């Protein structure tokens, strides 16, 4: 399958990665090559095979629904690029 | 004692317990070696204060007669592991300045048994790469060279700094992580030993995630005995990782008898690739003969879906990566782009991620986004997960038929020059993992053992693949192979 520039731009948007318009043709070509490699999977007969969900047959453990951690807002915010008054700060989201 | 750095973990452990040296002396020696090895660019964050503090406290423990498995032994930690108060940025600009407020379970386990951290080790960005050329810190360099040719070679990747540091005697051992071959391929390129345990053996908590269903930590060491010692120290059941295995961790070192009489070793025909170099072919045949001479039964086996492992991996790993790396949004940690007037939250995300992620990471996040997007999820992602189930079944079938371990080459070539793959298609670079990636998809333990040198004087390794949870048996087979191969070559010091 060949990926066009429009699709490449849409994928970049979905991934929230800014790609300059002049970089789109090369990006589309790279996607085309990688997806061409992946296309081989169509040769495999997967009829009746369940998609793998866990590589080791295990059931996820249950635990008691209890608060085990918390009360450390300073530590949580310690690495934030912008934190104010005990909160993460971001540009305005809602007009 | 000038050859302190040449010791193994086991040798240093015994010397410390006998009082022949101290952890402070040992640690000081390594810190000096690291200072003189800038050309290898293996250690990217140095932690001498922590190392000396830990060494002092280890010496006190030993003096009290309390000397656990790795007490006083200086090691390096891959930058993928979160280490409290110490930069941990997965070799990415997007985590510039990030200092975790917590310790990864694996590094905590190592510290609990007395290990000393010398610093953090170089790697490919977010562990995505096979040559350590995608790192924000620049390339790590292989201490091995092609004879008199002074071309810098790659130590492999993604655990390139770990491999380089252990091979160059800058630490006794190092942690690595392996999502598609990132412990075994660099170990093979640098003539050291590296094991990826069964998925679930090592807790993933506090290890920066790449592809959660494939990622496993493991040790990179100078020999198989050291791998056994350090693997046991790293493994544990951990409530904080929902896929962590609640199984007892055996004493792996005690299982190294070297006796493999009556074991059945499978040789998979699908790993005999077209155009495989004669040297690799010969290495593999020699290794097979060594195991046979040690009393193992050799059988030809078939793993029919092998050729589909790499394409399946290049759907599943990017898909999981696109999801895992969504957290790098410039809000909670790391880099945030500077905004122009009028730009809002979407521009912040897009600019932050464009500035913070390197080209290979961006490529994989976007491929993952594509294969998970509406209309393609079934055709790509679900199909890849079905193929993955078939790849695992291939292994289940041969183990059920009585095979104890599988012998394959570890890599399709020896270490290549830095920059030599620069103009290659990304898919060509992905071929480095052709022999290792099946093991991650099937969740199995795999180990790379150096067994020879090629015509350029570079190390080559074989891979042994074991049954789930039977790392002890696998390590013992690897030990027998190591004894038979007698690989002792070391790189000549040029750095």
Label the overall shape of chain A: flat
Q: How many E-type strands of chain A? A: 2
**End-to-end Cα distance of chain A:** 41 Å
CATH class category of the domain at 4-259 and 452-459 and 477-485 in chain B = Alpha Beta
Order of adjacent strands in the largest pleated sheet of chain B: 1-3-2-4-6-5-10-11-9-7-8
Biggest sheet architecture of chain A = 2 strands, antiparallel
Multimer state: heterodimer
Helix percentage range of chain B:
25-40%
Q: What would the average pLDDT of chain B be, to the nearest integer?
A: 96
Q: What order do the helices and strands of chain A follow?
A: HHHEE
- Shape annotation of chain B: globular
Average pLDDT confidence of chain A is 93
Task: Provide structural commentary.
The complex is a heterodimer of chains A (95) and B (495). Chain A is mainly alpha-helical. Chain A has a domain at 5-42. Chain A has 3 helices and 2 strands. Chain A has a two-stranded antiparallel sheet. In chain A, strand 1 (83-84) and strand 2 form a beta hairpin. Chain B is of the alpha/beta class and 495 residues long. Chain B has helices at residues 9-17, 23-35, 48-63, 105-112, 160-167, 184-190, 224-234, 278-293, 309-324, 345-356, 359-372, 377-400, 426-430, 437-441, 471-485, and strands spanning 43-46, 74-78, 116-121, 173-178, 193-196, 216-221, 264-268, 297-301, 405-409, 446-453, 459-466. Chain B has an 11-stranded mixed sheet with strand order 1-3-2-4-6-5-10-11-9-7-8, sandwiched between helices. In chain B, strand 10 (446-453) and strand 11 (459-466) form a beta hairpin. In chain B, helix 5 packs parallel to helix 6 (184-190) and helix 9 (309-324) crosses helix 11 (359-372). The longest helix of chain B has 24 residues, at 377-400. At the A-B interface, helix 1 and helix 2 of A face helix 9, helix 10, helix 11, helix 12 and helix 13 of B.
């Amino acid at each position: 399958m060949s990926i066009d520039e429009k699709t490449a731009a849409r994928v970049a948007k979905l991934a929230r990665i800014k790609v300059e318009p002049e970089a789109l043709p090369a990006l589309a070509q790279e996607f085309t090559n990688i997806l061409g490699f992946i296309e081989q999977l169509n040769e495999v007969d997967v009829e009746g095979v369940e998609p793998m969900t866990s590589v080791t047959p295990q059931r996820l453990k249950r635990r008691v629904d209890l608060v085990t951690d918390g009360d450390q807002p300073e530590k949580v915010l310690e690495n934030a690029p912008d934190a104010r008054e005990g909160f993460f700060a971001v540009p305005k989201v809602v007009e | 004692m000038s050859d302190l750095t040449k010791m193994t973990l086991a040798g240093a452990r015994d010397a410390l317990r006998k009082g022949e040296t101290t952890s402070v002396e040992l640690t000081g020696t390594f810190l000096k070696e690291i200072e003189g090895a800038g050309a290898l660019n293996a250690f990217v964050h140095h932690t001498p204060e922590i190392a000396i503090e830990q060494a002092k406290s280890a010496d006190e423990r030993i003096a009290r007669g309390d000397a656990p498995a790795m007490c006083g032994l200086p090691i390096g930690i891959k930058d993928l592991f979160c280490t409290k108060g110490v930069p941990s940025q997965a070799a990415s600009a997007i985590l510039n300045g990030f200092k975790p407020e917590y310790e990864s379970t694996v590094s905590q386990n190592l510290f609990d048994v007395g290990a000393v951290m010398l610093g953090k080790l170089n790697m490919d960005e977010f562990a995505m790469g096979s040559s350590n050329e995608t790192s924000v810190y620049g390339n790590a360099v292989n201490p091995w060279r092609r004879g008199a040719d002074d071309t810098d070679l790659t130590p492999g990747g993604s655990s390139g700094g770990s491999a380089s540091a252990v091979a160059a005697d800058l630490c006794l051992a190092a942690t690595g992580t392996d999502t598609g071959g990132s412990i075994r391929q660099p170990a093979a390129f640098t003539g050291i030993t590296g094991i990826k345990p069964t998925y679930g053996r090592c807790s993933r908590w506090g290890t920066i995630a790449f592809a959660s269903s494939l990622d496993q930590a493991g040790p990179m060491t100078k020999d198989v005995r050291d791998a056994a010692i350090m693997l046991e120290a790293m493994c544990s059941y951990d409530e904080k990782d929902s896929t962590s295995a609640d199984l007892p961790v055996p004493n792996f070192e005690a299982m190294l008898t070297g006796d493999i009489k009556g074991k059945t070793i499978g040789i998979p025909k699908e790993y005999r690739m077209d155009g495989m170099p004669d040297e690799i072919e010969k290495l593999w045949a020699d290794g097979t003969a060594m195991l046979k001479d040690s009393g193992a039964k050799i059988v030809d086996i078939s793993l029919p879906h092998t050729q589909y492992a790499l394409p399946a991996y290049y759907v599943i790993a990017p898909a999981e990566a696109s999801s895992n790396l969504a957290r790098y949004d410039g809000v909670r940690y790391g880099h945030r782009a500077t905004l122009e007037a009028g730009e809002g939250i979407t521009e912040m995300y897009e600019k932050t991620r464009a500035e913070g992620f390197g080209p290979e990471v961006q490529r994989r996040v976007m491929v993952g986004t594509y294969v998970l997007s509406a209309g393609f999820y079934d055709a790509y992602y679900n199909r890849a997960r079905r193929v993955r189930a078939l790849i695992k079944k291939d292994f289940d079938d041969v183990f059920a038929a009585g095979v104890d371990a599988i012998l394959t080459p570890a890599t399709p070539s020896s270490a290549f020059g830095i920059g030599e793959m620069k103009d290659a298609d990304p898919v060509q670079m992905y071929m480095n993992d052709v022999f290792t990636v099946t093991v991650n998809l099937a969740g199995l333990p795999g180990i790379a053992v150096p067994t020879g040198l090629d015509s350029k004087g570079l190390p080559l390794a074989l891979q042994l693949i074991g049954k789930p949870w039977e790392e002890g048996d696998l390590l013992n087979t690897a030990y027998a192979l190591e004894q038979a191969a007698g690989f002792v070559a070391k790189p000549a010091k040029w750095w």
